[in-house]
Design goal:
By secondary structure, the protein is mainly alpha-helical. It contains nine helices and six strands, in the order αααββαβααααβββα. α4 packs across α5 and α4 crosses α7.
């Protein structure tokens, strides 16, 4: 059965629904096995999404230990933006990022703490990020996605990347129940 039909999704869905409505078809052992296997695969994916720990350690390094012991390497600005969106699980519209400048600044200072970057440089970088009509935030989200794809399985990148519609709410889809923040200052920001 290696022949593939070239039909639209909606036509295929309608045909499948009609076929499954036939009781005799659901009694077929081969079809039962195939449906059970598909349900198990979906269940495993759901379990992985719910239980994938995200760890921000004491040096503000980012890890997904379930998939790799390697750090998700990011420069300061992408890491700042990613941590910001991890802390804002309900999401934020990019056009409103300027109202979060104080928090973004605090996170950037924490992320770059060992380099002791000049306050003026941080502000300039963040102002460029939130400037109206600037695509910098989209570029940063692309960098984040690329860095996540080096650690996470392909099917999970979409859940852990910053996503949203142009002009709408952007967020990280994955739940935060497994987010563990070990950095003291960052933990304070998270629970303010």
């Amino acid at each position: 059965m290696s022949r593939k039909l070239n039909i639209s999704y909606y036509t295929a869905k309608k045909m499948l629904m009609e076929l499954l409505a036939n009781d005799k078809l659901l009694e077929d052992e081969e079809i039962k096995k195939m449906l059970k296997k598909m349900a198990l695969q979906n269940n495993k994916t759901d379990i992985c999404l719910k239980n994938t720990p995200i760890i921000i350690d004491t040096q503000c390094r980012l890890f997904f230990p379930m998939y790799s012991d390697k750090e998700v390497k990011m420069s300061y600005l992408p890491k700042t933006v990613y941590i910001f969106f991890l802390l804002h699980h309900t999401g934020v519209e990019f056009k409103n990022l300027d109202s979060y400048m104080k928090e973004l600044y605090q996170i950037y200072q924490i992320v770059s703490e060992e380099k002791n970057i000049e306050a003026g440089k941080i502000k300039k970088s963040l102002n460029n990020l939130v400037a109206p009509g600037n695509n910098r935030i989209y570029e940063i989200c692309s960098v984040v996605r690329r860095n996540l794809s080096e650690i996470l399985p392909t099917e999970l990148v979409e859940q852990y990347a910053i996503t949203g519609k142009w002009g709408g709410l952007h967020k990280i889809k994955a739940g935060r129940s497994s987010l563990e923040i070990k950095h003291t200052k960052l933990k304070q920001i998270a629970f303010e």
